[in-house]
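Lab notebook, page 48
Experiment: co-folding of the full assembly
Goal: obtain a model of how the components sit together before planning crosslinking
Operator: M.T.
Materials (sequences as entered):
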Amino acid sequence: MQNTRKIPLLFLALSVGVVLLFLLNLWYGSVLIDWGSVLKALVGSDSESTNFIIVNHYRLPQAITALSVGAALGLSGLFLQTLFNNPLAGPSVLGISSGASFGVALVVLTGSFMGIDLLLPGLSYSQLIMVVAALIGAFAVLLIIIFVSSRIANIVVVLIIGIMIGYAINAMVGVLQFFSRSIELQAYVLWGLGSFSKTTLSQSITLSSTVFILVGISMFYPNSLNVFLLGKNYARSMGVNTQKLQFSILIISGILISVATAFTGPIAFLGLAIPHIARNLFNTSNHRILLPAVVVLGAFIALLCNLIAKLPGYDTSLPINAVTSMIGAPIVIWAIVKRAKIKQA
Amino acid sequence: MSIILNIKDLTTAYYVGTRKEKTLHQNIFAEVQQGELICVLGLNGTGKTTLIRTLLGIQKKGKGEVFYNEKPLKNINIRDLSRLVSVVLTDKIDDSFLKVFDLVATGRFPYGNISGKLSEDDINIITYSMILMKVEHLNDRVFAQLSDGEKQRVLIARAIAQDTSLIMLDEPAAFIDSPGKIGIMELLKGLTIKNKKAILMTTHDIESALRYADEVWILGKNGEFETGKPEIVTNSGLINEYFDNEEVIFNKSKLRFEKR
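Observation: model returned without errors.
Model output:
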């Protein structure tokens, strides 16, 4: 209870941080635009000006995407870590991002066979096709996971099946890669590196509103999740329908991961690392605090990673996964070591 | 005194999936009244935990029926059951950030509304439970870092916060040193006297069970089930019958096991 006063302050600081980073993301980039022009471009109607196009067509959707994906992955990571009672659970364990990869691999790598060459220059809807393919792939795996979990109450079995589906799908992608042209292969590899900058403004708004709704729904679960921390038997003894809870949590996190991955490609480490940072920063495992914390923190860190990715200042930015992994991996190592120390004590 | 739990002709069994593997105990007739401390005795592997799990509906039962306040268990949904019985289990809780206060607070879940915020009443009951179990000073500590004795008292405080007339405990005194064991038995006894709670606990600490219990239930190795007041089961030789072996014998006058 000693840090009850610290918590609102932390939330305030993080929220201010999110706003600042969001603005910095609009301002900073390979082309220098001063603050006045950024503002003018945002509210202005001169849709022909270069500044308007750069801010509204590139930087704004990118910032909205980063913010939404950070929140989505952080939230799903927390859900899955609590559900599986495992600090290494994250968006990749359910095989959902592999499902998305498979969808993309199918259209990108075999596109030329089916007569839709996505790599033709100037094909405006190719990006949309990839989003839809990724979404279908991700939802297909999610359906399998949900089917399995409705049959088998043991959540560890669901976890193992998710991981196995991931392996199986990666193998199929490997076969597709083997038979594809190098230019297609490159396009697929680029997708797999992840990027916040592929979305159009309307897509980023679709993404953010989906995430917003799911974040809203998540806020109904803090108490059941707190009870779930004590294990299934205790949860049951306190009147939690554990099977129903597992089911809802799987669906919510599954949709979050599917949507995020469809628009940006698989983003490494954010989902895994954000809950750990939140627990350490807020020094609690109370989901009343953690649920909003991972949302704000996720947005904060994703925007920060996006800004770092743009730092070199060239025409193109660093692959976002390189940045998230370089930040995420040490954090996860630190959190796991700390956890092990607490357990020894 | 009102009867809280009534067990009529219950059969407990060990299941693998839905397949019955082994019948453990048959013809169990017993009841638990308000303010009673009942110890379930039995050697390792006789099915003490299975009995608890069966009474809670976690485990499938064979024939027979279990009644809470005269209502059959099968007609009580888990939400209502959570306001009748709270439990202290042996399940490991190892979250590295879970604070003692937050853990005890989960006991209020059965009474929570959808917003999930703790009311002033909730906080009063949580604090009261922690004071009863002498763990209020551990408030802000991480549960996983406490000693086994402290952990057990925190878990009991959580059960008290759940505000049920019956508390079931599975081996609450295992892994705890002798002074700690007596401390816990005293606290539990106090709960039955001062707070009129009914307590049903399993234990293999026969000596302190005979000292503190109002009634003991004995689970035999071959499916036998006996109940009785501690003095009666002692004097009638039931303890000797179930627990003596080639090397150890129960001394009725000193209430302890001794070498033959």
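Interpretation: The mean pLDDT of chain B is 91.
Next step: discuss with group before ordering constructs.
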